[in-house]
Amino acid sequence: MIGTRKDLLGLEDLEASEIVSILDTARTFREVLDRPIPKVPSLRGLTAANLFFEASTRTRLSFELAEKRLSADTVNFQTSGSSVSKGETLKDTARNIEAMGIHLVVIRHQASGAPHYLARNLDAGVINAGDGTHEHPTQGLLDIFTIRERRGKIQGLKVAILGDIMHSRVARSNIWGLTKLGASVTIAGPPTMMPFEVERFGVKVAKSVDEALEGADVVNILRIQLERQRSTLYSTLREYARVYGVTSERLKRAKPDVTVMHPGPMNRGVEIAQDVADGKNSVILEQVTNGVAVRMAVLYLLAGHKAAGEAASETPATETKKAHGEPSLHPRR
Amino acid sequence: MPTEKTVERVREKAEIIDGEGLRRAVTRIAHEIIERNDGAKNLVLVGIRTRGYPLAERLAQKIKEFEGIEPPVGALDITLYRDDLQMIDHQPVVKGTDVPTSINEKIVVLVDDVLYTGRTVRAALDELIDLGRPKAIQLAVIVDRGHREIPIRADFVGKNVPTSKKEVIKVHVTEVDGRDGVSIGEILS
Predict the structure, then answer these.
(1) Which residues pair with residue B11 across a beta bridge?
(2) Greatest alpha-carbon span in chain A
(3) B6 near A CB under 8 A
(4) Which of A20, A27, A32, A70 to mutate to test the interface with B (most CBs of B within 10 A)?
(5) Residue A69's closest chain B neighbor by CA?
(6) Residues facing residue B183 across a β-bridge
(7) Is B77 an interface residue toward A (CB < 8 Å)?
(8) Which of left, alpha, beta for A81 (phi over 0: left; psi -120 to 50: alpha)?
(9) For A279-302, what is the mean pLDDT?
C-alpha cells in the first residue's frame, strides 16, 4: 500500500516511508521481469486506461507494459483522433471512460494539476504520468530506484541535476524524492532556466556545471526540451553544449564511479556528449528497464486500494470508503 | 495500519509436536524424498514463504547428510498469485521470489508448513510453472489439517491432524519464531 492513497500524483506529497515501500516492491517486480514468463496474475480483472494528452513514447509504452505484465486489461487514448478534438472537456472524457468500468487511470497532460483534478472527480485511482511542468512521479521513482540499486543507498549521496530545471517535471519529482530520502542535491543550468525561489526545494544551486559535478556520486542530465522552449532562454544549441553540456572531460570532477543518468530522449552532443551517453558509467538503459518494474509496483499498490473501495461499497460505509472519496493529494500552494 | 488478515484472537490449546518431534518429521520426510526419487541428483527444494523456506533449507541439509548431495533451495513468494487480492483491504507486502537455479527438467519439491484449503499450493504451482517446466512437482508439508477446497494432496506429510475450521494450526520454526514445534489453538470470536 502507499499509505491509504488511491492516487499517485506527486512525490512532494509522499512520506519517505511510502517511497521506500514502493522501491522495495519494485525490487520484486524487477525479479519478475527476468523470468522466462515475465508476467504475474495480480491485477487480473482490472482495467487500466492510459490517457495521453501529450506526446510520449517511452512512458506510455512503459506503463502499458507494466499493466500487461500484471495481467490488467489496458485501453489507450491519445489526443489525436479522439473526441478531445471535438471539444469534450477533460472531466467528461474521463467520466465516460470511467463509465466503461475503468479501475486505474494513467494520465499525462500539458496542464499542471490535471491529474489532481481527475483524482478529485473520479473513483478510479489516478497516476500522474507527467503534468505540465509540475511532477512526473514515476520517473522520479525509477531514477531513485536505479540510484539505490547501483549505489546501495540514497542517504548521504551527492546528486547533481543539470539543465533546464524550470521546465522539468522530472527534476521536481527527483528533487522531492531524493531530499526526502536524505540525499544532498545540487542543481546547475542556465540562469534563465532556474525556477523562482528555487531554495524552497531544499537544494544547493551551483554557479556552473563544473561546480555541481565536483565530487558527485550521481549526475542526472536533463533534456533540453526543444519543443517546449522559447528561443530567448539560450542563444544556440552549440553554445548550450559548450557551457552546460556534460562531456567526459567535465565528468572527471565527479567521483570516478559516478552514475550517469538521463531521462531520455537524449539530444546527443547537446546536453550529453556521445561518449558519456554510451560510457561505462551510464545507466540510461537500466533506467528504462527499471521504469517498468517501478510502474508495476505503483499499479499493484494502488490497485489494492481500489479493490478495498469496491469491497467497501458493497457493505455499509467503512473507514476505507471515506478515505477513498477524499481529494487526497494536492500540491501545496 | 490494517494488514491482509483481520486480527483474530487465538487461544493456544496444546502443543501437538514438540521441537524434537518436528526434527524427526523433517528427517523422515528427507528420507522419503530420497527414496521416492532414487537419490537426490535432480532435486530442487522450493519453500513457500514465510515458514516453508527455512523448512526447505533443513530438508536440504538432511538430504546432504544422507546422500552427500545438497539440492539447491529456493524461496517462493506467492503473494502476486493469490486469488483473493480483490477481496482484501490492502495489498500485502511482497517479499520476493528467489529461486536461484533453473527448474527446467528438475524434480521440484514444494515445501510448506501447513496444508489446509490448498489455495496457497494452487498459487505456488502457477508461479512455479511460470518459472520454468519442471519434470515433476511434489509437495511436502509438516502438517496436513484437512478441509481442502481444491483437489490437491501432499506427497510427503509430517503429521495428519484432523481439525475443525475454528481451530488454528501454527508451525513454529526457530529461524522465524525463535522455537520449534507445532501447536493447535482456537479462534475466539
Answers:
(1) B186
(2) 65
(3) no
(4) A32
(5) B80
(6) B15, B170
(7) yes
(8) left
(9) 96
Tell me: pLDDT of A118 over 70: yes
SS3 B139: strand
pTM of the model: 0.87
Grid cell digits, residue A136? 512526473
Q: What is the DSSP letter of A72?
A: -
Task: Give per-residue pLDDT as tens, A34-53.
Answer: 999 999 999 999 999 999 99
Joined together, the cell numbers standing for residue A249 give 572531460
Does this complex have an ipTM over 0.95? Answer: no
DSSP helix/strand/coil, A276: helix
- The answer to whether B168 and B142 have CB atoms below 8 angstroms apart is no
The closest alpha carbon to B57, from B98, B116, B11, belongs to B98
Query: Which pLDDT score is estimated for A55?
Result: 84
DSSP tag of A62: H
B131 touching A (Cβ < 8 Å): yes
**Paired residues of B184 in beta bridges:** B14, B169
Chain A 255-314, residues with CB within 8 Å of chain B CB atoms: 300-301, 303-305, 307-308, 310-311
Is A216:A255 a contact under the CB 8 Å cutoff?
Answer: yes
Cα distance from B121 to chain A (closest Cα, Å)? 15
Asked if A80 and A53 count as a contact pair (C-beta separation under 8 A), the reply is no
* A residues 19-78 closer than 8 Å to B (CB): 21, 24-25, 27-28, 31-32, 35-37, 39-42, 45
pLDDT score for A329: 37
d(CA B134, CA B155): 16
Beta carbons of B94 and A25 less than 8 Å apart: yes
Q: Pairing state of beta strands B156-160 and A184-188?
A: unpaired
Instruction: Using CB atoms, pick whichever of A1, A27, A40 lies closest to residue B81.
Output: A40
Given B77, B126, B131, which is nearest A36 (Cβ)?
A: B131
Residues of A in contact with B82 (CB under 8 A): 42
Judge whether A278 and A169 are in contact, CB under 8 Å.
no
**SS3 state at B55:** helix
